[in-house]
Amino acid sequence: MEQAKGFPKDFLWGGAAAAMQIEGAYNVDGRGLSISDVFTFDPALDKKHWLDQWHMMTHAQVKEALDPNSTKNYPKRRGNDFYHRYEEDINLLAEMGFKCFRTSISWTRIFPNGDETEPNEKGLQFYDKVFDALLAKGIEPVISLTHYDMPLYLVTEYGGWKNRKLIEFFVRFAETVFTRYKNKVKYWITFNEMNCVKHHPFVSAGIIEENHPNLEQDKYQSAHHQFIASALAVKACHEIIPNSRIGCMISYLLLYPNTCNPDDVLECQKEERVSFFFSDVQARGYYPSYTARMFKEKGVVLHKEPGDDEILRDNLVDFVSLSYYMSNNASATADQHAKASGNLIGGVKNPYLEQSEWGWQIDPKGLRYALNNLYDRYQKPLFISENGVGATDQMSPDGTINDDYRIDYLKKHIEQMREAIEDGVDLFGYTAWGPIDMISASTSQASKRYGFVYVDQDDLGNGTLNRYKKKSFDWYKKVIESGGEVL
Questions:
Q1: May I ask the CATH class of domain 12-481?
Q2: Contact, 147 vs 104, CB < 8 A?
Q3: Which residue positions are annotated as catalytic (predicted)?
Q4: How far, in Å, CA of 123 to CA of 446, rounded?
């Protein structure tokens, strides 16, 4: 079949997931508790509460999560049971023709507390089996070292990433998995959506926001420690796996000025820089000039150790990956009633865009803009590591799940990817978020579904966990078969 205009023949089509949302088996084979195991779901509470929990964790919640007798509902502890069903799930991915599968390694399966000196062999064996199963089906693993699931012990005993000791623990973890899987995994990502520490410091850096005396200081000190850890992981990866490619990842929170008022334009630039800062350091190897004023206005005095600047300079990422779901508007004088409440970071409603069931503003052309923006900025290969739409899919009496809205969403975004490639962007892969229904990261719901495959599980964990193909399953299969020509 003639290759589609724009997409290269070796383009990595696939899907993405996270260990903390799919694996389950939280207390099996020596795994320790992670920060993802703290989040609860209560159907009696409204959506605002679920999102507030994602953005602000309390000391009481952490304490209760550590109590083995707690009766709270912790959905991420059960996931969709990928731990026991990985072969079935990988067969489904292979049936769709996946070229790659992006997932993560659960840090607490390898080092249950995070500060051990010897890894947990049973945890290592699990990922051996997963990667072998993927490779046997011709699916390239794309692996994040950590995806919002650092060991909870590193929060309670060390205070999270504000403690520089975590660099040592993370690098030991990275070197361990690089060495173990050097013949199985060649695509790696260090930290998932590192720029989100500014929005949800607990899941990104292990910082408990409640009653925090100097939150901004600890956010950016934690980010610095993660930058160093990421750079050292890049160094180790290149040394241990010479043919590897290792990248960074940001959540691309695309912003438009709400009006052409210069105040809105400047506000937009200011807010964008707060996100770009995280990829700037990892892709360019230094702190941009604009960070001096940013830190001053936030009251941040960054502490660096001798040699830190050289570590950042000498160990640049090979590619930049991004998650992209929506866009926002930035306003210097926003009317709070005009806020788009469903957006993860607020933002002002855009009258030209539709919204998803969860209030996320759908903006396919924004993806083209985002890709051009990133490639112009870094001139490094790009990889879309997340893109998708959550919805409450319904199964018909005959067993079919018609998710035309998902097909429409993905189709329009893939069209804009093609346009970006024609614009000159070096885009080498795309992994649609959540190919098999999983637990939502932000709300801990099972009913917020992204997948091409339906999982029979409700928000309280009831259901058979059986897998059923949705209408989008065959659609995406044709997209991959045709190299993006048939949409």
A1: alpha beta
A2: yes
A3: 386
A4: 25
